[in-house]
Amino acid sequence: MTDPNQKSFPVTWDQFHRDSRALAWRLAGMGTFDAVVAIARGGLVPAAIVARELNIRTVETVAVKSYDHQNQSGIQVLKPISQQVLDLAKTGKKILIVDDLVDTGSTARVVREMLPGAHFATVYAKPKGRDLVDTFITEVSQDTWIFFPWDLDVAYVAPISGGTD
Ligand SMILES: O=P(O)(O)OC[C@H]1O[C@H](OP(=O)(O)OP(=O)(O)O)[C@H](O)[C@@H]1O
Ligand SMILES: O=c1[nH]c(=O)c2nc[nH]c2[nH]1
Ligand SMILES: [Mg+2]
């Protein structure tokens, strides 16, 4: 169930691009990555931005579903990491895993087990999952729901003073 006291943190495309670039800047100081693994679906957009900034051409996905709308369900791995990328990791190549955020850390825990030596990066982090992430940009409180630009539309908002116009 959605908590009625939950705060909301809406993120525009512009802000998300800036924050993903900021993540790329931070990662750029950590050496060269040989491949990026995006955690689909939320990690696809930041992974594309980071791959562009860091010139990473090998881009892989792992599909993990943890939530139905705002309700957490059991973790389902819908598409595993390809053998080609697992083999790269085995030969000592540097792999970067990217997701949009870490919340409880359940998704991060499952994907980290698949690639134990990889660097795990997210744009946003909540306190419960923060320690599972090697690099992130912005922390929000645990009772905040982040609304990503692909889940939003432009809509009317009532004035602060109340009323309808
Ligand atoms: O730290 P956790 O509590 O696991 O939550 C974080 C995960 O939840 C969201 O994915 P979701 O399962 O909603 O799927 P999606 O990426 O397809 O939206 C988000 O993109 C992260 O992957
Ligand atoms: O869009 C989202 N916003 C969040 O804050 C969140 N936490 C887990 N999964 C999430 N998805
Ligand atoms: Mg996700």
Automatic annotation (TrEMBL):
<comment type="pathway">
    <text>Purine metabolism; GMP biosynthesis via salvage pathway; GMP from guanine: step 1/1.</text>
</comment>
<comment type="similarity">
    <text>Belongs to the purine/pyrimidine phosphoribosyltransferase family. XGPT subfamily.</text>
</comment>
<dbReference type="Pfam" id="PF00156">
    <property type="entry name" value="Pribosyltran"/>
</dbReference>
<feature type="domain" description="Phosphoribosyltransferase">
    <location>
        <begin position="13"/>
        <end position="155"/>
    </location>
</feature>
<dbReference type="GO" id="GO:0032263">
    <property type="term" value="P:GMP salvage"/>
</dbReference>
<dbReference type="InterPro" id="IPR000836">
    <property type="entry name" value="PRTase_dom"/>
</dbReference>
<protein>
    <recommendedName>
        <fullName>Xanthine-guanine phosphoribosyltransferase</fullName>
        <ecNumber>2.4.2.22</ecNumber>
    </recommendedName>
</protein>
<feature type="binding site">
    <location>
        <position position="100"/>
    </location>
    <ligand>
        <name>Mg(2+)</name>
    </ligand>
</feature>
<dbReference type="InterPro" id="IPR023747">
    <property type="entry name" value="Xanthine_Guanine_PRibTrfase"/>
</dbReference>
<keyword id="KW-0660">Purine salvage</keyword>
<dbReference type="GO" id="GO:0000287">
    <property type="term" value="F:magnesium ion binding"/>
</dbReference>
<feature type="binding site">
    <location>
        <position position="146"/>
    </location>
    <ligand>
        <name>xanthine</name>
    </ligand>
</feature>
<keyword id="KW-0479">Metal-binding</keyword>
<feature type="binding site">
    <location>
        <begin position="41"/>
        <end position="42"/>
    </location>
    <ligand>
        <name>5-phospho-alpha-D-ribose 1-diphosphate</name>
    </ligand>
</feature>
<keyword id="KW-0808">Transferase</keyword>
<dbReference type="GO" id="GO:0032265">
    <property type="term" value="P:XMP salvage"/>
</dbReference>
<keyword id="KW-1003">Cell membrane</keyword>
<dbReference type="GO" id="GO:0000310">
    <property type="term" value="F:xanthine phosphoribosyltransferase activity"/>
</dbReference>
<feature type="binding site">
    <location>
        <begin position="99"/>
        <end position="107"/>
    </location>
    <ligand>
        <name>5-phospho-alpha-D-ribose 1-diphosphate</name>
    </ligand>
</feature>
<comment type="pathway">
    <text>Purine metabolism; XMP biosynthesis via salvage pathway; XMP from xanthine: step 1/1.</text>
</comment>
<dbReference type="GO" id="GO:0005886">
    <property type="term" value="C:plasma membrane"/>
</dbReference>
<comment type="function">
    <text>Purine salvage pathway enzyme that catalyzes the transfer of the ribosyl-5-phosphate group from 5-phospho-alpha-D-ribose 1-diphosphate (PRPP) to the N9 position of the 6-oxopurines guanine and xanthine to form the corresponding ribonucleotides GMP (guanosine 5'-monophosphate) and XMP (xanthosine 5'-monophosphate), with the release of PPi. To a lesser extent, also acts on hypoxanthine.</text>
</comment>
<feature type="binding site">
    <location>
        <begin position="103"/>
        <end position="107"/>
    </location>
    <ligand>
        <name>GMP</name>
    </ligand>
</feature>
<keyword id="KW-0460">Magnesium</keyword>
<keyword id="KW-0472">Membrane</keyword>
<comment type="subunit">
    <text>Homotetramer.</text>
</comment>
<dbReference type="GO" id="GO:0006166">
    <property type="term" value="P:purine ribonucleoside salvage"/>
</dbReference>
<feature type="binding site">
    <location>
        <position position="103"/>
    </location>
    <ligand>
        <name>guanine</name>
    </ligand>
</feature>
<feature type="binding site">
    <location>
        <position position="146"/>
    </location>
    <ligand>
        <name>guanine</name>
    </ligand>
</feature>
<keyword id="KW-0328">Glycosyltransferase</keyword>
<feature type="binding site">
    <location>
        <begin position="145"/>
        <end position="146"/>
    </location>
    <ligand>
        <name>GMP</name>
    </ligand>
</feature>
<feature type="binding site">
    <location>
        <position position="103"/>
    </location>
    <ligand>
        <name>xanthine</name>
    </ligand>
</feature>
<dbReference type="InterPro" id="IPR029057">
    <property type="entry name" value="PRTase-like"/>
</dbReference>
